[in-house]
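lol so apparently i was supposed to do this last week
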Amino acid sequence: MAENIDKINYAADDIELLRGLEAVRKRPGMYIGSTNSSGLHHLVWEIVDNSIDEAMSGFGNKISITIHKDGSITVSDEGRGIPTGIQSQTHKPAIELVFGELHAGGKFNNSSYKSAAGLHGVGASVTNALSSWLDVIVHREGKIFHIRYKDGGKIDIPLEVIGTTNKHGTTVTFKPDPTIFSTVEFKWDTIYNHLQESAFLLRKVHFYLKDERSNLNQEFYYEDGLKEYILTVNQNKRPLTDIIYFNGNVSDIEIEIAMQYCYSDYNETIFSYANNVRTRDGGTHETGFKLGVTRAVNEFIDNNKLAKGKKLEGGDIREGLTSVISLKIPEKKLEFEGQTKSKLGTPEATSAVSNFIYEKFSYYLTENKEIALNIISKCIDSYNTRLAARKAKEEARSNKKAKQEIILSDKLTPAQSKDYLKNELFIVEGDSAGGTAKKGRDRIHQAILPLRGKPLNTDSITVEKLLQNEEFATIINTIGAGFGQSFDIDDIKYGKIIIMTDADTDGAHIQTLLLTFFYNYMRNLITTGHVYVAAPPLYRVYKEEKNHKVNEKYAWNDQDLEKAKKAIGPGYKINRYKGLGEMNEVQLKKTTMDPASRLLIQVRIDDPLFVEKQVGILMGKDTSNRRRWVEENVDFNKVDTFINEVK
Ligand code: TSJ
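anyway here it is w/ TSJ bound
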């Protein structure tokens, strides 16, 4: 009898669990952010984070990911294996809760530093809910367990023992549901970067990535973790110092920092983490780091009388500095802030990191006099440049005539309005498309700047060389807000800078060259959302009616194309556009320039690590990498990591 009652409750519980997963399927965006490529890869992170947690707790030092030809993916580890025993409250195997209940992941995880999976992760159940099928094999306590789900989390094959073993570990394979996602194609680069980032943070764990579609293989294993992180990020820069590395504890907070100065870099780049979770929006640990570094350098300057009467600011001191900060904070002290919970709030982290880095870096500067002098010299250069730029700007402001004398290139077709933020600057590939754009533009608010040929690769060149380049000198002048450290977003003359190229390999290359320039010299322009890529349509579907009226529809991808064919009806014809040049001014205006009907892609920096390396791939000598990147990303349907979101 008791058994029967249990069975009835069990069934009721099952329905309850399925309701939870149904909620995920109804609103996937709430759980994984989006249903585009970024959301798709989120499914993988939810799973692999569990293996990372297990390795962090000291169980298993090998984690592998395999992308299969059928669109499924496997994550495997050599940890203790997900517990399979019956849970007393629910009378169900723990493993069923992991895959059936939202947020069940951390429940029986006792590791002292809660990390990715336990913190932000919504858990493996979300991946299950959004998969056509999901298969789990656990090696544990001498047995091999198996369970399989289908159709977004329904049990297909209940938990069973399928053999014996002397190994331990967990293997999960799943196939994302194509009715949920706009793309179900896993990207090698995206998974590669994520896994490499994990490997940097979790040194001495082997990570393997295999792609059975292309037979690519990669192992990540770092003895030195953060040092190798910096080495990778700065691989295309000219280093001014060695990679400086410190680690230690301040009470129960574990701190690890790696940093390096590079020449001809106007930016400071900080990657910060708390318990291996990326804190994109910084927080108390970054604040502490900045305070400590500034104090150490200013004190060194004072003690050695290196800059009489000069008061260096933090920005001067951190120009060209790349840093990685990784903290391990006990769970009870861990606080996150902000809408996306990507800012560390733990108050104690500020003083802990500030005191730590102040002490260590001061000692380093004293012990390495020669390097210290090089650093100080760069800081003073930054300070001087900043002051000179400010002075020049003040003069220009106080002297209206001087302001009018800024010579605009004769290549530029300006906009008439002085309502700058409403204005748009189109940087157009080729004089011919430039001419068409000029005719098709809205002359009040749209300006056209044609580019001839490929722009200069601005990664790792000197400022002198940059300014000698007519194309970039023109762009800097036209935008009107300076560049480098003196770039001032408040002075921009356009609310939108729109890169308009053909939708082909050359066009993609030109986009990257321009984006590299903006990334290196006007980064704020990107971070504040002013840079866009115009997406011209790939097809025109049309039919000439009896009265010579042309009925037409444009298509940006294959789905659009099918819709357009249906809408136009039998007898349709198709133009496949290979370039901007194939459109006349009316068509170009309608499809690509007119805010009412165009498609624009806003450029965002989702992941600076990704961008730094991407620039290396695209500008580097290894053309096979470049070809692969272009193949994976040049299709506008798929461009959503480097370039994001349609607007
Ligand atoms: F996401 C997931 F749940 F599906 C998943 C979990 C996927 C993969 C590939 C691995 C894992 C996973 C879970 N690997 N290792 C573990 N470990 C545990 O769940 C575990 C084992 C033992 C104990 C214990 O206290 O004895 C605790 C935990 C959390």
